[in-house]
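HUMAN: Ready with one sample?

ASSISTANT:
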Amino acid sequence: MARRLQIRLLTWDVTDTLLRLRRPLGEEYAAKARAHGLKVEAAALGQAFRQAHRAQSHSFPNYGLSQGLTSRRWWLDVVLQTFHLAGVQDARAVAPIAEQLYEDFSSPSNWQVLEGAEAALRGCRRRGLRLAVVSNFDRRLEAVLAGLGLREHFDFVLTSEAAGWPKPDPRIFQEALRLGHVEPAAAAHVGDSYRCDYQGARAVGMHGFLVLGPEPLEPAVRDAVPEEHILPSLSHLLPALDRLEGSTPGL
């Protein structure tokens, strides 16, 4: 008789899987700018942030830790560049805004727990699963999770800043497996990014679940991910685990 698969460790992405910002980032940046006497359009800031973040991530991967930066300095530079791209040339005027934004995003008040997240975490705990976070967040994550009442659900929280490698680097997933004392076949990862979460976990032999966001999946991604690995919402997680554990290992 075929042995049933048993998942013992479930790792979680955070942003847009468990948490999201309470309001769009551009609006938050614009509000802080107004409080400091600067008027900048939220849409322009949102677009500039995406450009600045992409460039900073390319030039200084994983918060530039291997290049002598700290995550705080990395984020302050992203904010400064965001306002520069949005048309604010006075870096001295932006510096206190950047400091305030860094502190604000350290606070749970700027984040909200996604619908179904707490119920899914409690359901996983009732099943006896060990739970952990594997996230490309920085050192502020522990405080954010604690402030939102989620930290208690997790055996450990592994950020890319602490690990030294960002998803989808296999080493951050391998470190999670080491901390969780499980083999890849007994672990699964839940996240909203096909590349960072689903592909990253699958590359080290873990199982993976891809959480759908507000935008439809690209056809190539939908073709690449089995339907039983796609979660329309977190309420679909426990039934998906049931199906996974009812399968035969190796099939």
User: Anything to note?
Assistant: The mean pLDDT is 95.
